[in-house]
Amino acid sequence: MLTQVNNPIGTLTVRRQIIDQIIEHAFEPLEGKLWLANYRGTVSDVLVKIGGFDSIAEKKVEMHEDKLFIRLYVVIRLGESITECCGRVMQCIAKDVTELLEIPLDNIEVIVTGTVSKNNNIARRDLSMNFRQMLNDRKIIYE
């Protein structure tokens, strides 16, 4: 169990699997552009070819003072906009967590650990974006 939300009707128990499904849903529109990965960015080329990033993905989902904190490690296709792709993922997750689950959001961090070339080779990167900074910079992507 991750947290419990009390409301006038009763108590809602939120499990980690629900947050994982919300994260998976956020990545669906970006299939072939952005994948979950691990913190080292070292993913087997075979996994890139068969699309098996999720099997080794590392996600940090924690509650900090009754607010949800999410950290994702991703690999992005070379040539895609990091700001746009990561911004869409963060915005989709934030919308689902705050509107559907009604859990206050602390922050969402997306760390780009690598880029995938046309030959499916992975080059290491270390770029970070977070939802609070994106809101402050007003780089919100509206659909």
Q: What's the short version?
A:
The protein is α+β, with helices and mostly antiparallel strands and 143 residues long. α1 packs across α3.
Overall description:
This protein is an alpha+beta fold and 143 residues long. The chain is 31% helix and 34% strand. It contains 4 helices and 7 strands. Strands 3, 4, 5, 6 and 7 form a 5-stranded mixed β-sheet that branches.
Shape type: elongated
Whole-number tally of structural domains: 1
Q: Can you tell me the CATH topology?
A: GMP Synthetase, Chain A, domain 3
Structure annotation, total helices: 4
State the end-to-end distance: 33 Å
Strand content: 25-35%
SSE inventory with pairings:
Layout (H helix, E strand, L loop, with lengths): L2 E4 L4 E4 L1 H12 L6 E3 L8 H6 L8 E6 L2 E11 L4 H19 L4 E12 L5 E9 H7 L6
Parallel strand pairs: 5-6
Antiparallel strand pairs: 1-2, 3-5, 4-5, 6-7
